[in-house]
Amino acid sequence: MMTNVTILRPRERIRQDGEAIAALYRNLGTATAEQLVTRALGELALAMSGLDARVRARDLADLARQLRRLQRMAENLGMISLCAVSQDAGICLQSGDSTAFSAVWSRLMRIAERSLAADKGMVDLSV
Q1: Checking phi first, is residue 79 left (phi over 0); if not, alpha (psi -120 to 50) or beta?
Q2: Residues 6+ positions from 122 with CB-CB distance below 8 Å
Q3: Rounded to two decimals, what is the model's pTM?
Q4: Could you tell me if 33 and 24 are in contact, meaning their C-beta atoms sit under 8 angstroms apart?
Q5: Distances (CA, A) of 42 to 45, 86, 95, 116, 127
């Protein structure tokens, strides 16, 4: 009888394109860009929270559209990892593969949490 249990703690590599944010600052100025980015990050966090509540309630109607919206929001902020995994979740959802969707959804939640974390020291800025 085996008694060893290994707890897996997946760590996601978060990729972000810093140029997307830098362009906003160049084009809009510091104060306006800061307001825009702060608002966009807040909206992204609210979108993730809403999606999480729907998935937990197993309310998957219209979820594919909401994932595409999340993907666009992440893309506009240069959040490469969040954009890619939200797209992957939508593909799993549309293909009807509930096992794959569950796995990708868990990954999306980990990436969203790390992407939205205040500690941006963890983020790999790669163009």
Answers
A1: beta
A2: 14, 114
A3: 0.82
A4: yes
A5: 5, 17, 30, 9, 23
- 3-class SS letters over the chain: CCCCCCCCCCCCCCEECHHHHHHHHHHHCHHHHHHHHHHHHHHHHHHHHHHHHHHHCCCCCCHHHHHHHHHHHHHHCCCHHHHHHHHHHHHHHHHCCHHHHHHHHHHHHHHHHHHCCCCHHHCEECC
Tokens of 16: 């972000």
One digit per residue, pLDDT tens: the chain, 127 residues?
667 877 777 777 889 998 999 999 999 999 999 999 999 999 999 999 999 999 999 999 899 999 999 999 999 999 999 999 999 999 999 999 999 999 999 999 999 999 888 444 434 444 4
Q: Give the whole-angstrom CA distance, residue 100 versus residue 40.
A: 29
* CA 84/CA 71 separation, integer angstroms: 7
Give strand pairing partners of 16: 125
